[in-house]
Specification:
By secondary structure, the protein is mainly β. It contains no helices and 12 strands. It has one domain: 3-layer Sandwich (Rieske Iron-sulfur Protein), CATH 2.102.10. The chain binds FE2/S2 (inorganic) cluster.
């Protein structure tokens, strides 16, 4: 299976992303909290470039023990990237659409070879 060069590791900062191309395939690669994730850059809604959207932490409701709403905060653990066309959000760690977790972007293996990163475009 073809391995597509993504970046030198030193050039790929935490929280950054790359879009790589192989044939007609576009793959978004994310560097998030020490791990690399790669997904097809094609939104499950209408095919938009979902991996190119803003990255943001999940917004969570804060509830008191009696379930009274206290406000909102950003999650420390979960982050999403947001399709720029109509706002579908995807979990950066799984590629799941957070509005319906049965939907998931196609994912790709990310390989480290020395100081370089590659995705396996299969
Ligand atoms: S194409 Fe991505 S939200 Fe519509």
């Amino acid at each position: 299976m073809p391995e597509v060069f993504v970046s030198r590791i030193d050039d790929f900062a935490e929280g950054d992303r790359r879009i790589v191309f192989h044939g007609g395939l576009e793959i978004g690669v994310f560097h998030w909290q020490g791990t690399y994730y790669a997904y097809e850059n094609q939104c499950l809604h209408q095919g938009g470039p979902c991996c190119e959207g803003v990255i943001m932490h999940k917004v969570e409701d804060v509830l008191a023990p009696d379930k009274t709403w206290l406000g909102q905060r950003f999650s420390a653990d979960e982050a999403h990237f947001v399709c720029p066309w109509h706002g579908y959000e995807y979990d950066i760690r799984t590629g799941e659409c957070v509005g319906n977790r049965k939907l998931r972007l196609k994912s790709f293996e990310v390989l480290r070879r020395g100081d370089d990163l590659y995705v396996v475009a299969s």
